[in-house]
Amino acid sequence: MKTDFKTLKELHEYYAVHNACGLKELATQPVYEITTPSSGILLIGEAPGRNEDLQGRPFVGSAGKFLDELLKSIGFSREEVYVSNVVKYRPPNNREPQEDEKDACRVWLNAELLFVKPRVIVTLGRHALGRFVPDAGITASHGQSFEHPTGIPVFAMYHPAAALYNPNLRDVLKKDFKQLKNFLDNRPKVSKAKQEEIDAILQL
Ligand code: URA
């Protein structure tokens, strides 16, 4: 796995060429973020939608607007966090990403984790949760944290797009973001030795 990148842009340009995701040929372009976050919060969605496919940036449509609102409610701007997706290409007609497509983007996401070194991974929706905590169901797990084998905590959230269809989930998401803030406020900083352990596991 290639990891010696100087910038996120370089990393994404490399994996945009070196991946076998079947969605590549169907999408306009890969969708990714290129700015390193200051907060250590890494949020992972499912897959780009139409607006993201056209602009090449994650969460720029209506789900992204609600995500920005949720971040703002706990004192963060979009520029302070890093946002990614389980798959980097838009599935046709916004269908769910398939297992082989998620697998093909696995190394790409691992490389992002190594580069960003997040304090917490916030999974948005069941596809992202399943990538890190395979046995957890979103209904029972949202608003809670899990210890991933790497040592990076994973915090489960509903997908913001789900609240666009089911308005009851708006308040659930707002409450869960408050829980995330509490979690971060009480979580000790990662030591250098612990970070080295995390990096070693991610490189496997
Ligand atoms: N939904 C996602 O899961 N990702 C995006 O980038 C946009 C909407």
TrEMBL record:
Biological process terms in GO annotation: DNA repair
Keywords: 4Fe-4S, DNA damage, DNA repair, Hydrolase, Iron, Iron-sulfur, Metal-binding
Gene3D superfamilies found in the cross-reference section: Uracil-DNA glycosylase-like domain
Domain Uracil-DNA glycosylase-like: 31-178
Alphabetized GO MF terms: 4 iron, 4 sulfur cluster binding; metal ion binding; uracil DNA N-glycosylase activity
Signal peptide extent: none
Pfam families attached to this UniProt entry: UDG (PF03167)
Record family assignment: Belongs to the uracil-DNA glycosylase (UDG) superfamily. Type 4 (UDGa) family.
Listed name of the protein: Type-4 uracil-DNA glycosylase
Organism: Candidatus Dojkabacteria bacterium
